[in-house]
Amino acid sequence: MQISELVEIFAEHTDIVFWVRTDSEMLYINEAYERVWGFSRKALYQNPNSFVELVHPEDLPELLDYLQSDKKQTPVWSMQYRLVLNSGEIRWFEVTNKLIDVEGRNFPGIMIGTAIDITQEKRISDKLFASEEKFRMIAENTSDGLLVFENNQVVYASPAYFKQLGYEEQEELGRDTASIADLLHPEDRDATLHSIQQAISRGDEELVYRFRAQSKQGDYIWREDHAKFVYDDNGNYVRAYVVARDVTDHVLTEQKIYDLAMSDRLTGLCNWFKFTQDYAMTKDDGGDKVFILLDLDGFRLINDTHGHHQGDVILKFIGSRLKKAFPDAKIARYGGDEFVLLFNSITDNQKQMNLGVEFLAQSILSEVARPFRLYDRSTIRRKYSLTAGIGVMTFKGYIPLQEVFRLAEIALYNAKHRDKNQFAIYDEQMQQCMLQKVTMEEQLARALVDKELEIYFQPQFDLQHRCVAFECLLRWFHPQDGWIAPDQFIPIAEQMGMIVVIERWVIQQVCGLLQSKVFKENRADLSASINISSYHFLQEDFESNLLATVKEAKVDCCLIVLELTESLLISQKELVSEKMARLKPFGFRFSLDDFGTGYSSLSYLKNLSFDQVKIDKSFINSMSEEAKDLSVVKAIVALAKALELELVAEGVESEAQQAILADLRCDLLQGYLFSKPIPKADFINKFVITKG
After folding, report:
1. pLDDT tens digit sequence for 545-556
2. Residues 245-257: b if buried by 16+ CB within 10 A, e if exposed
3. Is residue 678 part of a domain?
4. What is the DSSP letter of 55?
């Protein structure tokens, strides 16, 4: 909960509302402090205990006792005392503090407090003892209800008392204490009656208690009763005078403060602060628990391409779906695009529990992946789907929440490292993987600056064995660890968002190469294929940055082929189509990479403006031995020919494979049979200068 939100809500509230830590640091106090007490809030922020100077000398000892004792750790505390205001007037106030605590905190607790002016109420209560006549006159002209009890009977009830409960004055209400008790809410009845009996048995003169009372209409109002007890000379209870006040609005305000402090304002789920409190209450529960940490895949891209408002809409969707689909779970939004879920035991059988956890995690992923519609920046409503990564921590009994979260986070990193839409259940081996991944993130952030990243080039040949194009492939040579495989560091770069910077650098380097003197004089016809990640391609400024880079290098756009993957098309087909349509007129060509390995759909080739299809090397590797793979390759070739698409076979490693592809009239061949990916200098010498 942000202080700014409290300021907005309670700035004009008539009661004084404050937010203070138990170490006396004042976090917030509304303007009513200045209006009611007549003193500057600035002084109170500087010294939260400065208000003590305003307390009436007779009430000061009790207040100081509270401030200097452990009573500040009491969940709910209330006290009445007098203040000498700036004008010299003495007024009574009732101050109520509610402590919000967090299990395992390393900071002081926070108290939400209110201060209500009860001067009129105290004056009425004091006057009750002055005279019966004055009492009756006051009673019938105040909004507070007044009751007089004698011998367990109501001997007097004021008109306001009836009005509070929705009755006409002449309507009969039970006059004995049992009938009055029947009006109390069942959850409040026993505690309220017990506190009254205890006060009388101790000989207390006053008691303040709060409860819910049922009205004639059947609903409940919140009442706060101030009772004064009268005893005879022998100390026997004789009579009680009760001032009954309707504090429903005040209680609702308190509850609103509490709800705002404990809930996520965007999704309506509880926030992490409230989740920690609820988790602490499970300390005595020895059963099995399942803790799940969920992080949306590519959510930053949604914010970047559609704006934060649409991102907020998605978070509301996800929160609502999780709450509806898993009503028995304790669900909270941890922050950003992360959610946490806590489930009680699924089963006592460990094997069955593991299966149950896997099914549960998969169910959550399926719930997140259900399509929804969003308005893009052009106000067109489009269909989208999201995926998520899930880290699962299962345990028995009680483990501090910080440790549970840490281990679930390790499992989440493991799931994210595999791919999108994955879950992982924590085991001890993940700890080492997590440390390695964090180390790689730190090293990768420095790799581009330290010039550890290089571009290697792999030629593509036509059926006449001429090099007519090349693919640009990123390589990382670590000074200590040597070569790091692309499938290890590229997914991490995508998760970090660093892939945008890296691929922009690649485009700049390739454009510089195509415009270099050696290329222009020897192989000005060579085209370059550049792999573009989905995160980068969907950036709002992708087209403008690409065009600016190509224009600055004075490169013909027809020489650049942008390779896209199927995963990009699955989630953002419409947006991808629009971006391709905007770039095609400039001459850029598009290639569908690794065709046949994902959720290949003919509609992608039919409806999107691809120029080229690349057959994945997994089919090429086994097509000479596996009839099914050969059939797949033949089908892809036939499809590409029918749609007039250029066909590239990657991963060609044997002459047998080359012969099959030549018979199928595949347009371009690429693989170790011809050349491995090689550094720029070697590529220029072998395939540019010598025109290989």
Report:
1. 999 999 999 999
2. bbbbebbebbeeb
3. yes
4. B
Place of tokens 């452990």: 70
CB 447 within 8 A of CB 474: no
Number of domains in the chain: 4
159 and 98: one domain?
no
In angstroms, rounded to a whole number, what is the distance separating the alpha carbons of residues 383 and 375?
A: 9
Angle between helices 132-139 and 119-127 (to 10 degrees): 140
- Smallest CA-to-CA distance from 218 within 165, 179, 176 is with 165
Reported as a single tens digit per residue, the pLDDT across 306-327 is: 778 888 888 998 999 999 999 9
User: Is the same domain home to 209 and 269?
Assistant: no
Instruction: For residues 277 and 262, give the distance between their C-alpha atoms in angstroms, rounded to a whole number.
Output: 10
Structural domain of 39: 3-116
| Alpha carbons 119 and 92: distance in angstroms, whole number | 5
List the CATH number of the domain containing 172. Answer: 3.30.450.20
Q: Are strands 90-100 and 467-478 parallel, antiparallel or unpaired?
A: unpaired
Q: What is the pLDDT of residues 345-382, one digit of tens each?
A: 655 555 545 568 888 999 999 999 888 777 665 566 66
Rounded distance, CA 590 to CA 613, Å?
9
According to DSSP, the residues that pair with 472 across neighbouring strands are: 457, 530
Answer yes or no: are the C-beta atoms of 148 and 241 closer than 8 Å: yes
What is the Cα gyration radius of the chain? Answer: 37
Per-residue DSSP letter, 263: B
